Amino acid sequence: MGSRTLRVGIIGAGHIAHAHLRELVQQPGVQISAVVDVRADAARALARACGATACATVEQACSAIDAAYLLTPPRVREHAVAVLTAAGIPVLCEKPLAADVPSARRLAELVRAAGSPFMVGFVRRWHPPYQRIRTLVAAGELGRLLMVQRQRLGYLPLSQGNWRTDPSQAVGMTVESLSHDLDLLRWLVGEVVEIEGRVVGSRPELRDFDDTVLATARFADGTIGSWQASWMSAVEHNSLALIGDAGTAVLSGRGMWRSDSLTTAAPGATERVELLAEDEAADMGFAGETTTFLALARGEQVEHPTVEDGLRTVELSASILS
Length: 322
What we know:
alpha/beta, Rossmann fold, Dihydrodipicolinate Reductase, domain 2, 2 domains, six-stranded parallel beta sheet, 10 helices, 32% helix
């Protein structure tokens, strides 16, 4: 695509669009050229804010864009994926890839058939403390991994305008939010070969809506793992622990997303506790995700979460729920 300006379209003008736009507007050689949303007022408002054109349909936007951020709720993505991939437009698709396994498989087939760049928005891969953990694992500093644990607790209010608690769009925590954590451990450890779990729902007004999950798994290399997550915890906290035969690393943070401290130790050695700098602790990963996708959209070969990663997390979520 050379050095010319990359025209980016935003498909879905909800809350997450603003997080992506904060990074996109800082990138040289990028122009936000089109915004699409079924809510015409939302499309117009976001388009005005970033100097773009509000479009009524994805088809209308295609002629004005070179790459697309697909940020709609997962139940309503299939048509947009079909249109964008058929046009050969690189896509960053928010997670989860889809609401269920059949839909995810259809989307994956569309992407495979088109062959155009497609990245799933597992933004936590670019959280700097997680990248440090991955480096520790790859360097063998923890030895052979024995067990990994991921915990993420917080509270999701029943907010009007949030699709996550809209009865017509909601998919529950295990499909939606836990997809981050399923992908994170796959990225750190490798493929999951066995998984099972239990879920609880505490909101009767949302039918078949799970908000608390406990899952256990075995990875291809023999490591065992677990996930604990809830949208109903009045105490917000998250942690990531990796236990190997040569060392242990534990990240811990206030809230659902921060990593405030890293504790490491070898067997029999004194623990080393590092308090992380604020810019590292609070970095959600959007900056790294943005630069990676823009490189992909410009034709560069970069490591990124693929449609196959997106499909696999939906399959794992379905296994937990089954």
